[in-house]
Amino acid sequence: MNKHVQMLTRTAFSLALFVLIAGSNAFAQGAAVTGTWTASAKAEEPSKIYLSFERRHENGGRNQMGSNYDFADLQGLRREQVVNGGAARFSLVREAGTIDCEGTFQNGKGSGTFRFTGNQSFLSAMKSRGFDFEKSSSKHKDGHDSEDRLFAATTLNVTTVLADDLLSADFGKLDVDDLFKAAIFKVDSKFMREMKASGFPNLGMEELVKARIFNIDADFVAKVAQMGFNKEPFESLVKMQIFKVTPELVAQARGEGLTNLSVEDLVKMRIFNIDGDFIRQAKAEGVSIDIETLVQKRIGVRSR
After folding, report:
1. Which of 48, 52, 54 is nearest to 82 (CA)?
2. Could you tell me the pTM of the whole model?
3. How far is CA 72 from CA 1, 79, 89, 97, in A?
4. Which of 35, 66, 75, 203 is the Cys-Cys partner for 55 at CB 3.0 to 4.6 Å?
5. Where are the domains of the chain?
6. Under 8 Å between Cβ of 66 and 50
7. Digit-coded pLDDT (tens) for 31-55
């Protein structure tokens, strides 16, 4: 069970944090950051556009990162230009730097080239707060140079305001990668305080990121308490979300006489599709009503 949870968690981290490692080995110190971009208008969200940046390297590798951006964040670009087509020049201006783009649009899709200019004063401001963008990370043996990290900070909109907010919330020791995680997963001091108040005072950045990935907030903690599980460890809440343990499932089980269930029991019920109807059928056949016996019945193992 734990291996399954860990696998899902690692998968979610790998997908969502791809942007953090995308730039490894990207550029030599001081080299210009250039590349190509593609974009497409979002019909379901008229105020947004999907914009992807790609950089190719001398060793033949390439790195790509993309996200949805508000048109309001892109200076010089309007939705009408994207839809109507034609040449375009626009910029993504953030505290960490500026990405200047030029190219063309046709039928709501566009492509072209970009050049990135980092804000060196941002590096100094972050370093004064304990976040050294020029220090290599032990997580990436090939390292990140400052331009590479600045580029990632620009695309993710990492700001000194975010850094100050995280520092005010007593998260413990944080590094630059933690800033990226906080920006990606919308972790801030408000969310941390809400989780503390809900009964989890010692969660670090990794746990708070998990909480965002699996949609665990103060409301969910309250719902779990209403189910009768008000003293569960944080990882149990993660399992409940992964396997969709609901109040309805708990009520069904208790209604059929399974009153002393653990979170692990409920997870097994979800994995093996054991619900109220299955329990009633088992009772009618004279099967002992406990989780392990019900699981054996579901998988076709006869009890002796």
Report:
1. 48
2. 0.80
3. 45, 10, 15, 17
4. 35
5. 27-185
6. yes
7. 568 999 999 998 889 999 999 999 8
